[in-house]
Input
Amino acid sequence: LNSYSRLFKRAQEAGIFVIQLDNPSNYASDVFAGSDWKRLGELETQAVIDHCGEGSSKKIAVIQGDQVNASSLDQWAGVQAVLERNPGWTVAGTADSNWDATTARNAAATILQQHPDVCGIVDFWDATAQGTASAIRDAGLKDKIFLATTGSGEAIDCKLLEDGTFGAIVTSELPRQSQDVVAAIKILLQSGIKPG
Output
């Protein structure tokens, strides 16, 4: 969240526009083009709750990316916001994948051993969710655990949704973000305003 703040400031002071893509930081750059990660976390969590239903254990698990990435922190805030609106629902287990599918698989396997009654899992990224899905399958729980994740619209996501590996995918509109960045560059360079 703060890693590039000094660099961004130096760039703007040198007359260079700063555009952040997909992962915001705590620095107010000239443009941010990316997802509303909190909203994505809310949509993922609500999909799990809706699928599991009131008659379930009301226990979910969460496979996060990491503890310092804005998209992960914001998705976690979205998970918490939905849980606050849905009394009785809890996160039985959570782990970081460090954005690695094998790490996600191992983390999900551990969570499923400790909490075999979870009805759903929210995984913060489609690539790591493939590892989480493997752990669910290996535990023999594919028909009992609903897996929700985010993706940017790749064909593999559609295939995994169609075959039931993923229960829900919330898209982050990555191709549209690229268009937003191009439009922002044109506006900034033609505007006559100064960076910052």
